[in-house]
């Protein structure tokens, strides 16, 4: 005789829905947006079907469309023209530059939106790295000064959350101190705590033309083989004053998401990165899998692993297709 028949709880759609443990909702999602110079400009990213770089006027329209669908949070990334890049990423705190101007506009028209900025040198760096480069080495402490200045400029322009994605040591504490010194005690920090040196960032670097000009990012981003080190990184960010801890990428690192959610009471975020999006889109375009189902399943697994917040290029599409 079989006493326990777990299939009873799967016997109808109504029961399956009733016992479902994890439900992704629109407010869990942050939609990354790519900004370019110009007016009325949009260009699709080849390796990310359905995702566009927008000029700032069209970004406003995109944000409005997303908010009408129930997506209120956005992560903004700039595509900076090569001629404005330099060794010290000085364009990153230019008040009249593309990024800070667009940020001010967005917060002016949509004060109820939540905008997370990117604190990192690579989009503005002639070396394509997240830190200052000297003799082929990425300098840690001098980079902090650039990051601090960038974060304060973004806070001044209206950032709700600053997101250091650079992986320099001590940057969360440094940025917190700089923000507080300038009176921005209400600006949050989402720390890219466990950010791995991953092959899955390829399409993002296409979108921003931000690939490193030499070498790789392995002296600052984490080794994909390491799990325990993620706890050290998260602990430091927690102690330095982070408001959210993030794991990046998401799907290949669900174990890391789980560990951080078991060990820290701050909200855990996960970045479902460009390559994860590209893989599903490419396979769907070839008819090799059902793209919608793969999207729902991926986002649900990331949340099930322990991420309350998911940064994903699927955000808008999810909101359009989500039936709940
Ligand atoms: C760099 C940065 C990267 C991403 C976000 N910020 C790429 C990198 O580290 O080279 C990747 C996001 C994605 O792939 O979707 N500061």
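^ structure tokens above, recovered residues below v
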């Amino acid at each position: 005789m079989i006493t326990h028949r777990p299939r009873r709880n799967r016997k109808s759609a109504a029961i399956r829905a009733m016992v479902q443990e994890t439900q992704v909702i629109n407010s869990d999602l942050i939609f990354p947006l790519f900004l370019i110079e110009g007016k009325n400009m949009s260009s699709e990213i080849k390796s990310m079907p359905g995702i566009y770089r927008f000029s700032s006027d069209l970004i406003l329209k995109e944000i409005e469309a997303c908010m009408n669908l129930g997506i209120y949070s956005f992560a903004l990334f700039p595509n900076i023209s090569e001629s404005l890049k330099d060794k010290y990423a000085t364009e990153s705190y230019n008040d009249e530059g593309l990024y800070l101007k667009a940020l001010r506009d967005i917060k002016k028209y949509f004060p109820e939106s939540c905008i997370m900025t990117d604190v990192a040198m690579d989009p503005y760096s002639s070396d394509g790295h997240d830190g200052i480069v000297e003799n082929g080495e990425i300098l840690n402490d001098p980079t902090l000064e650039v990051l601090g200045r960038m974060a304060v400029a973004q806070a001044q322009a209206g950032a709700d959350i600053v997101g250091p994605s650079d992986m320099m040591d001590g940057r969360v504490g440094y940025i917190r101190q700089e923000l507080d010194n300038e009176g921005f005690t209400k600006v949050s920090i989402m720390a890219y705590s466990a950010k791995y040196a991953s092959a899955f960032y390829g399409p993002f670097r296409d979108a921003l033309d931000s690939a490193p000009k030499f070498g790789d990012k392995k002296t600052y981003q984490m080794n994909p083989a390491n799990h325990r080190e993620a706890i050290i990184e998260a602990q430091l960010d927690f102690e330095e004053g982070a408001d959210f801890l993030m794991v990046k990428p998401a799907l290949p690192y669900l174990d890391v998401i789980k560990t951080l959610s078991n060990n820290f009471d701050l909200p855990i975020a996960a970045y479902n990165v460009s390559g994860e999006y590209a893989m599903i889109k490419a396979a769907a375009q070839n008819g090799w899998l059902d793209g919608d189902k793969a999207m729902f399943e991926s986002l649900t697994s990331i949340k099930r692993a322990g991420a309350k917040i998911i940064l994903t290029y699927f955000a808008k599409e999810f909101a359009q297709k989500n039936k709940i």
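The first strand starts at residue 29 and ends at 36.
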